[in-house]
Specification:
The complex is a heterodimer of chains A (293) and B (352). Chain A is 72% helix and 4% strand. By secondary structure, chain A is mainly α. The radius of gyration of chain A is 19 Å and the shape is globular. The N and C termini of chain A lie far apart (56 Å). Chain B is mainly α and 352 residues long. Chain B is built from 16 helices and two strands. Chain B has a two-stranded antiparallel sheet with strand order 1-2. In chain B, strand 1 and strand 2 form a beta hairpin. Chain B is globular, with a radius of gyration of 21 Å. Classes of the chains: A mainly alpha (293), B mainly alpha (352). Chains A and B meet through helix 4, helix 9 and helix 12 of A and helix 8, helix 13 and helix 15 of B.
Chain lengths: 293, 352
Amino acid sequence: MILVQNLIDAIALGALFALVAMGLGLMFGVMRLVNFAYGELITVGAYTLLLTSGQPEWVRVVAALLVVVVFGLLMDVTFRPLRLASPTTMLIATFSVSFLLQNVAVLVFGTRGEAIGFLPVLNQAVDIGGLRIRWVTLVSILIGALLLGATSLLLTRTTIGLQIRAAAADFRMARILGVKANTVITTAFVGAALLAGVVSLMLSIQRPLATPTFGFLVIIPALVGIVVGGMDRLVPATLGGFAVGVATGLLGNLLPSAQRVFLNTALFLVVIIVLLIKPDGLFVRGRQTVERL
Amino acid sequence: MTLVRRHWTLIGPALFVVVFALGGRLTSGSIQLQVRSILVTACIVVALHVFIGVSGVVSFGHISFVAIGAFAAGIATAPAELKPTAFPDMFPFLANLEIGNIASLVLAAAIGGLYAFLVGIPIVRLSGLAAGIATFAVLIITNNVFRNWEAIGPGAKTLPQIPETSDFLQVTVGLLAVMAIAYLYQTSRYGRMLRATREDPAAARSSGVHIHRQRLAAFTLSGLLAGFAGGLLVHLVGSITTNQVYLDLTFITLAMLVIGGIGSLWGAVIGAVFIATLNTVLFEAENQFDLGPLSVDLPAGSRLVGLAVVMILVLLFRPQGITDGKELRWPFTRDGADRSKEVEAGVGMGRD
């Protein structure tokens, strides 16, 4: 019974990480950009909820999503000059943006953390067949599944979605065929920002303290997830995020507390082993050919 | 003169470091410490350059070699009467160990190199982002183990009372030695072979270069230098915790390398000195900073914001870094600029 309960909690964490992984994967797909600053979009959402406390909950939700999208657009504009730069330069630039936003948060809000107080009702547990499950767990799983489904529909059934996928497969060819680079990249950033906004809502219920590293703490396991899953394609990347979330959740609950401190060691040893066996990603079928000339 | 000119790639940056260090000696007490700290940071960045700059593979794991060097040198020199009582879980042979300053630096380098070699055997097979994440995993594992296994280190506590022996002479000579080793390596046939794998792996392999072997050699050498830098660091600060040698140091040193310009020794030195000096100036400005009639007083916490803004601006306007990834040029030739253009044009033609 404990096992089932842990499994459900782990799946909820996995759903959250899958959303983050999907956002990262969207930006990586169209721009080859590993965006460290993506976590700060989640932080921005949490702080917006904090600043709007006292307002009706729907106002807070709309405000958080809006502000996160605005920050997403700002990031898009900031990274524009770097589109042709080397991957390392882009990586360090996104890290610098992340570093900047974290320290602005430290300057404005301090490091102590402040209570967000967003929909605390959802933290109450409900009794389902002997299992004590928090509402937020169920909501996370539901919203995660809905959003993942909606995003994949958008990507496969709409023109802009197809353009994004074409750009992810071969950016230069897509441009030759008339896909607008700016439109595709901006759309991907807005989509990723919306996902980050939703993640910030879910996380603000589960971890009700807004701190400068609120989103950064999520981004590292999610990044690991997309690389382990296979970051060249969106579905494997998302599955990778889900897998890392579930693994973290399960190991965190099942390991005896003396060993729990070594959770990171266990997790990242698995990561190294997976990378050595399947460098292209765990959920990518076949082996990709190395492009030469 | 021809000798100086031939090795200007090393001698130019070395002269810069010597002038910087001598200038630092003239400053007052608290700034002196900062200048020495800048020189130690430059050591770490040059160590990063030996692997990342020459191989083109990004490693997020090198601070674990700095960490292991720092803990080795720190534990080996902290007073033997202190350790068994302060850290009861520590292995007795570590707790009772007490060696000299220079010996501890050698130990730091050796253990950093050994650890890098062992870790490198599997990891050098990876490239690109997979290599980035795998080295990052090494960093997290190293930190996690040091933080929680109290038999080999101070755990989550601070290791105090380490002799503060990293004076101006030691850090300057240390940095110059690290630079000289980096220079000798990058101009040796092995360094050139590895650089060939960075430019074109297929062509390098077909010319008989064993990519993994060359990468492992550079990874080990770079780990050795990083371990040595860790030794200097711990003797500079006098105490060490696991968080001092973790994510922040990893990102800031990588940013220094990129901002200086990945691929050149000069870039590693100038990137480190530029960012670390800026950091110091902003730090002083936070605590009221008087420069003649000019008095600057910034609100606390603005240092890191300012640092981040400058880093972003440099990257946006010079994505290839301050030096464009090129070595320092001999300043006394008139045709120097033209000749370098010819070389670049030649390379371009060869590629297309």
